[in-house]
Amino acid sequence: MIDARGHRLLATVEDTEALGRELAAHLQAGDLIILDGPLGAGKTALTRGIAAGLGVEGRVSSPTFIIARQHRPGPHPGAVGLVHVDAYRLGGDLDELDALDLDTDLDHAVVVVEWGLGVAEHLTDRHLRVQLRREPESDIRTVEWEWIAAAG
């Protein structure tokens, strides 16, 4: 069961993907997920799990070089799409992020933004902040998540 706020140990990539599938069961079009964590912390693995849980089409990989990748909804009724964004190369440039027109995508999809902390929060009234950490010298990761309402 996924609560509005939580913490978990992720011993394997499979655990990370499984958490993504669990999160997806509680997501709907219009939801924004902001992933934060260092390289190798599991942001793309978590997104793969979210995509699997939503049942979207296409293989999920890091969108580093194209910045944003859209995945169409699967064939089941009520399915929503996924937009996977890598904000790392945007360097905090809000104009570049706005040029991606993600607020329009939010009408029909779940939007996941890697490296989005401090950049993407303004897109919605609330977002799911997911902080991933990798333990030094191991593959063990920890994750904390929390739904956060926009200030103001």
Shape: globular
User: What is the count of β-strands?
Assistant: 7
Outline the biggest β-sheet: 7 strands, mixed
What would the average pLDDT be, to the nearest integer? 84
Helix content: 10-25%
Q: Regions with pLDDT < 50 over 5+ consecutive residues?
A: none
Task: Please report the number of helical segments.
Answer: 4
How much of the sequence lies in strands comes to 25-35%
Distance between the termini: 30 Å
- Over the alpha carbons, how many angstroms does the gyration radius reach? 14 Å
Coarse structural class: alpha/beta
The spatial strand order of the largest sheet comes to 1-7-6-2-5-4-3
The topology string of helices and strands comes to EHEHEEHHEEE
Q: What labels would you give this structure?
A:
152 residues; seven-stranded mixed sheet; 22% helix
Give a short synopsis of this structure.
The protein is an alpha/beta fold and 152 residues long. The chain is built from four helices and seven strands, in the order βαβαββααβββ.
What would you note in describing this structure?
The chain is an alpha/beta fold. The chain is built from four helices and seven strands. A seven-stranded mixed β-sheet has the order 1-7-6-2-5-4-3, with helices on one face. Helix 1 crosses helix 2. The longest helix is centred in the N-terminal third of the chain and has 12 residues, at 13-24. It starts with a strand and ends with a strand.
How is the secondary structure organized here?
Blueprint: E1 5-10, H1 13-24, E2 32-36, H2 43-54, E3 68-71, E4 81-86, H3 94-99, H4 102-105, E5 109-114, E6 126-134, E7 141-149
Parallel strand pairs: 2-5, 2-6, 4-5
Antiparallel strand pairs: 1-7, 3-4, 6-7
Helix pairs in contact: 1-2
